[in-house]
Amino acid sequence: xxxxxxxxxxxxxxxxxxxxxxxxxxxxxxxxxxxxxxxxxxxxxxxxxxxxxxxxxxxxxxxxxxxxxxxxxxxxxxxxxxxxxxxxxxxxxxxxxxxxxxxxxxxxxxxxxxxxxxxxxxxxxxxxxxxxxxxxxxxxxxxxxxxxxxxxxxxxxxxxxxxxxxxxxxxxxxxxxxxxxxxxxxxxxxxxxxxxxxxxxxxxxxxxxxxxxxxxxxxxxxxxxxxxxxxxxxxxxxxxxxxxxxxxxxxxxxxxxxxxxxxxxxxx
Length: 268
Hints:
There is one protein chain. It is built from 9 helices and 13 strands. The protein has helices at residues 14-23, 38-43, 62-66, 88-99, 135-148, 170-174, 192-205, 222-233, 254-260, and strands at residues 4-8, 27-32, 47-50, 52-53, 58-59, 71-74, 106-112, 124-125, 154-160, 162-164, 189-191, 210-214, 250-251. The strands form 4 sheets. A 7-stranded parallel beta sheet has the order 3-2-1-6-7-9-12, with helices on both faces. A two-stranded antiparallel sheet has the order 4-5. The protein is globular.
């Protein structure tokens, strides 16, 4: 039997990731919450599973989804920005109870650099930097701890900065908007292609039981960067409040670069 991987969440990132892993010789089980996407996954040679996650229960055959898989990639957006009342911790506890009795040996949990606070001094953030005490960040950190402290499997936490691609660029959302804050704050983004390449490298190199920040270099200011991108796309530039003090941070990815011997494919 070939090396099997399960991807929880075959959406904007998970679906092209699954296709890349298949191209590299892995068998993929993948979940979706949409019936309409089952055939799409099948056509891409992904073994599809219709599964819904909630704090109360998991709807769907999660046991079969994890069956025979050695590595699990968890790519479920917490959705706490829109729904801060959601119990994301309990949702992940429900999943962990199934992982513990499965064949899974390694887990990649895709987290977020939003667990670090912004600051007027634009601190350089490493994996050892202090984290936020906001309600959303505390939920994310509790989930990370649940995975990292579990002795039934090895976990690597991958904290991505803002995800983007040519089909999903924040500049398009900001285009034409006025009175935007944090004009001089550093930009922290990572391209979809780099996300996929980093995940593939972690699996191929067996990089487990670690925590990694992932953000593309360099880190231009928001005003500089988004004006440049909007000009390139020939869409209206955003308007930033340049007289107000900006808050931000610079996500440092040196640990990832050194550990994986990685070079970012898409620079800002």
